[in-house]
Write a structure and sequence with these properties.
Layout (H helix, E strand, L loop, with lengths): L1 H28 L4 H6 L5 H11 L5 H13 L13 H36 L4 H15 L2 H15 L15 H35 L2 H8 L4 H38 L5 H10 L3 H29 L7
Helix pairs in contact: 1-12, 5-6, 5-8, 5-10, 5-12, 6-8, 7-8, 7-10, 8-10, 9-10, 10-11, 10-12, 11-12
Length: 314
């Protein structure tokens, strides 16, 4: 197992290099000059050139990339162009907000998806099954940003139940923090729960038709034990795969949701930095999000072994 973990981490190195190269290339294809954006269009040309030289933006692009990569290997993500703040420090300041959003969204999605998927599989072709299928279809089709705007219009502006924006840390006020994050988290959880509910239904239906399920019932085991101990656990491997893939989309969706709800997380930092042409911050945030996706996929692989002991990595 340890060998497999090390192997997966080593395989992630070229992935991260390709991500860094892709982000660096795409950023420099965006129209606009970060120095002009910072100083303004009326800045003196000599001042613009001096700042560009200080930031190293006057060098050829391959040299800029190799310089940034050399710093990255030393754990230095550089400094923001807009401020002297190190990129690593900016990420750590915004990370708790995005983690809070991702954890709460994942919890809400599983709280919705697993019962719906099990209910639809147990009562196949019933009203519950059809409603779950309808819910899954709507969840896949509805854009996250539109859902967030509708939540603000309904629960904030009409009903005045929840605050439309803002963030309070869990340490400062847990109840207020959960209230503020409820709409953003459910905006992300709606899409994730739709995919998981559909996969849970399909996987559990397949498992319930297996011979060992009929054998367990023939032995007189309670239906609840058959369903949870023998059925659901064996049906979870495809579900866990979908959840692992959706975690990557969760970080991408956080960019949209944090912008809609004005949350000071990594997604908002990324959007603001793109508009400001703050290349070091954009590169650092995207690279960090890619690392989170790699780690989540590794965690899913380890979870396979727990769910099915027959799975072993040689």
């Amino acid at each position: 197992m340890t060998r497999q973990v090390v192997r997966r981490l080593l395989a992630a190195v070229p992935v991260m290099l390709l991500v860094s190269l892709g982000v660096f290339t795409l950023l420099h294809l965006i129209p606009g000059d970060p120095v002009v954006t910072l100083l303004g269009e009326r800045a003196a040309p000599e001042v613009v050139e001096q700042l560009r030289a200080d930031l190293g933006l006057d060098r050829p692009l391959p040299e800029q990339y190799l310089t940034w990569l050399a710093r990255l290997l030393r754990g230095d993500l550089g400094r923001s162009i807009r401020s002297p703040q190190p990129v690593r420090e900016a990420i750590w300041q915004r990370l708790p907000v995005t983690l809070h959003l991702a954890i709460q969204a994942t919890f809400l999605s599983l709280l919705l998806a697993l019962p719906l998927g099990v209910l639809a599989a147990v009562y196949q072709d019933s009203i519950a099954d059809r409603l779950t299928t309808l819910y899954a279809s709507i969840g896949v089709a509805v854009p996250t940003f539109w859902l967030g705007v509708m939540f603000i219009l309904l629960f904030s502006l009409r009903l005045h139940w929840l605050p439309p924006s803002g963030y309070t840390s869990l340490a400062a006020d847990p109840l207020e923090s959960l209230k503020q994050m409820l709409m953003p988290a459910f905006s992300l959880a709606f899409v994730l729960s739709a995919e998981v509910a559909r996969m849970t239904r399909a996987s559990l239906l397949e498992v319930l038709n297996q011979d060992y399920i009929r054998t367990a019932r023939a032995k007189g085991l309670p239906e609840r034990a058959v369903l949870l101990r023998h059925g659901l656990k064996n049906a979870m491997i495809p579900v866990v795969t979908v959840i692992g893939l959706q975690l990557g989309r969760l970080f991408g969706g956080a960019v949209v949701v944090e912008t809609v709800f004005a949350l000071p997380g990594l997604g908002r930092l990324l959007v603001d930095s793109i508009f400001a042409r703050d290349f070091p911050v954009v590169q650092g945030v995207v690279l960090f999000m890619a690392l989170m996706v790699v780690i989540s996929n590794l965690f899913v692989d380890l979870l396979y072994v727990y769910l099915d002991p027959r799975i072993r990595y040689g």
